[in-house]
């Protein structure tokens, strides 16, 4: 045999004692993590439980738990939408912010170097407008699509 696989095959040994033929040590077992139940499944189980004939105080606590789970699910979906929109608009926000910052630097340099105060008011007005635009881009809500110009 070229690879020697069959010659080295072990023959099953008869059980010497109950459970002692196991090669694994019982002390090395890893405990399983508890299964995480989704919000949707938790809500369904609470709704099913509410359909049963239960005492009033138990029903009240279950209704409160159901409201809490619904609120938690709403928060989760809202965050997912925000994340999706934020990731979609991240590049646009970055480019817009860079363009505005470049324009601000250019105008500030022009304002410093201009010895004549002829267009100084115009430059200052443009600078304030650009800084306002920069704040708009920087602090725009994450859950809304970015609309520029």
Automatic annotation (TrEMBL):
Coiled coil: none
Stretches the record annotates as Disordered: 1-34
GO biological process: maturation of SSU-rRNA from tricistronic rRNA transcript (SSU-rRNA, 5.8S rRNA, LSU-rRNA)
Pfam family, one: Efg1
GO cellular component: nucleolus; preribosome, small subunit precursor
Record's compositionally biased regions (Polar residues): 13-22
Protein name: rRNA-processing protein EFG1
Taxonomic lineage of the native organism: Eukaryota, Viridiplantae, Streptophyta, Embryophyta, Tracheophyta
